[in-house]
């Protein structure tokens, strides 16, 4: 009987030991046992600095929004980072340093100097006739653009003194390389050789009125209004040798003929 009790006691003790061991294993697999393990929880949140560094590469203050989103859940932190970078591109457009600024400057492109030039004629110019002391027997015509647009002085002036029946011929060698262009307020010039210096030409006379006509681009006929510059009160002497120069951009080029 003593051996039987001893055997039962050992059996009970072994069973109790087995039950304690089973309870110990169950406790290890319980949720509270997993809660005691602190390292896995820290590991699950450690990718958030990496996700925050991705928006900061966008070099915009909205990157902080991306890092806040990455602290949410482990699976969605990557997508939050991408939305942060999208926010940084929006920040560039709101800054106006890329497309916004270029569009604004294009809309303000200057157009003041793009006015289409017109033909210089009596209504948009002022013409002055002044006798010259040198060369002798010469007169200078000065045409000033009084309009608001550039104008072209085509060819040469068609001048008519008093009751002359034809216009004086032009000095062909005086033709400039380009058409004279007058900006508003700018002047162009032409010289009129009134008479022969030695008095050898025929039909000399004194005239007191002058009309200046302006040619168009085709040089086939005059265009627009004519000009009527004043002459000296005593008039000017002309003869059949009278001739004119082409319009010149500079006064010095006109008086050389």
**Radius of gyration, Cα only, in angstroms?**
51 Å
Number of strands: 11
Number of helices: 8
Q: What distance lies between the first and last C-alpha atoms, to the nearest angstrom?
A: 158 Å
pLDDT averaged over residues: 72
Protein described:
With 257 residues, the protein is α+β, with helices and mostly antiparallel strands. The protein folds into two domains: 2-94, no CATH class; 118-255. 35% of the residues lie in helices and 23% in strands. It has helices at 2-28, 31-36, 39-45, 47-56, 63-70, 77-95, 99-107, 251-255, and strands at residues 118-119, 125-132, 138-145, 151-161, 180-182, 187-193, 205-207, 210-215, 222-227, 236-238, 243-244. Strands 1, 4, 5, 8 and 9 form a five-stranded mixed beta sheet that branches. The chain has a four-stranded antiparallel beta sheet with strand order 2-3-6-11. β8 (210-215) and β9 form a beta hairpin. The longest helix has 27 residues, at 2-28. It starts with a helix and ends with a helix.
């Amino acid at each position: 009987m003593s051996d039987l009790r001893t055997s039962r006691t050992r059996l009970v003790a072994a069973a109790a030991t087995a039950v304690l061991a089973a309870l110990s294993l169950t406790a290890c697999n319980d949720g509270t046992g997993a809660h005691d393990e602190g390292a896995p929880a820290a590991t699950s949140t450690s990718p958030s600095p990496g996700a925050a560094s991705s928006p900061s590469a966008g070099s915009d203050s909205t990157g902080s929004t991306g890092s806040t989103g990455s602290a949410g859940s482990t699976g969605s932190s990557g997508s939050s980072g991408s939305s942060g970078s999208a926010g940084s591109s929006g920040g560039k457009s709101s800054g106006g340093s890329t497309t916004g600024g270029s569009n604004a400057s294009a809309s303000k492109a200057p157009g003041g100097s793009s006015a289409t030039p017109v033909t210089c004629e009596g209504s948009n110019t002022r013409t002055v006739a002044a006798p010259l002391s040198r060369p002798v027997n010469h007169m200078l015509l000065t045409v000033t653009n009084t309009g608001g647009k550039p104008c072209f002085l085509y060819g040469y002036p068609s001048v008519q003194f008093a009751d002359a029946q034809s216009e004086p011929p032009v000095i062909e060698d005086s033709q400039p390389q380009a058409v004279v262009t007058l900006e508003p307020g700018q002047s162009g010039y032409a010289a009129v050789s009134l008479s022969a210096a030695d008095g050898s030409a025929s039909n000399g006379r004194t005239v007191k009125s002058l009309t200046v006509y302006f040619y168009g681009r085709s040089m086939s006929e005059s265009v627009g209004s004519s000009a009527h510059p004043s002459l000296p009160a005593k008039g000017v002497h002309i003869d059949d040798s009278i001739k004119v120069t082409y319009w010149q951009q500079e006064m010095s080029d006109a008086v050389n003929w």
